[in-house]
Amino acid sequence: MIGFHKVRSQTQIAAVARLAREIWTAHYTPIIGRAQVDYMVQKFQSAPAVAAQVDEDYAYYLVTSDAQEVGYLAVVPDVDDGSLLLSKIYLLASQRGHGLGKEMLRFVEDLCRRQGLGMVWLTVNKHNAAAIAWYERMGFTNAGPIVQDIGGGFVMDDYKMEKTFD
Ligand SMILES: CC(C)(COP(=O)(O)OP(=O)(O)OC[C@H]1O[C@@H](n2cnc3c(N)ncnc32)[C@H](O)[C@@H]1OP(=O)(O)O)[C@@H](O)C(=O)NCCC(=O)NCCS
């Protein structure tokens, strides 16, 4: 049974940071290399970084399956734009391919509907082929390249993907 737990406490923030380090190191090292993974985890997914995002406009959710913490997601709603940024969607490798990601996306789309938002968008690394194929299967379309300088001599070399719904 899947569960979604809005991240508020320091304990929950620490759990997100732990999951992020494990998932990002395993998943992104072959894609962007260890140096950029370490830089991005520190800058965007360390406990202080997640805490700062939660204090601003990010909503993080820890995802549990049978009461075990198996992943997390983060969203940034933009009511004026009528859209929602799906900033993070990550599962431990052992938990993939069993339908949990689809339920996470359904949860995100329900959040949108409740807030009257008709579009979800995200950015995905151009070489994260499995995730791109998954997003396409889930109904997203590729809206083109988006390159962002993140400092430290690194860039995020991504595609923007989006999905509109009723
Ligand atoms: C992306 C991710 C969240 C998807 O979650 P998941 O639990 O593995 O996906 P699901 O099992 O819910 O898949 C849902 C459907 O997509 C299909 N699917 C799974 N992986 C796929 C892939 N790589 N390409 C195409 N279809 C795929 C499934 O067969 C399933 O099909 P169905 O509609 O017939 O049921 C998860 O794989 C993940 O954490 N990946 C690594 C991290 C990552 O890259 N995150 C995105 C960062 S931008």
UniProtKB/TrEMBL annotation:
Residue ranges constituting the N-acetyltransferase domain according to the UniProt record: 15-166
PROSITE patterns: GNAT
Coiled-coil residue windows: none
Alphabetized SUPFAM superfamilies for the sequence: Acyl-CoA N-acyltransferases (Nat)
Keywords, ordered alphabetically: Acyltransferase, Transferase
Domain of life: Bacteria
GO molecular-function term, one example from the UniProt record: acyltransferase activity, transferring groups other than amino-acyl groups
Xref: InterPro entries: Acyl_CoA_acyltransferase, GNAT_dom, N-term/lysine_N-AcTrnsfr
PANTHER family reported for this sequence: N-ALPHA-ACETYLTRANSFERASE, N-ALPHA-ACETYLTRANSFERASE 50
Name this protein carries in UniProt: GNAT family N-acetyltransferase
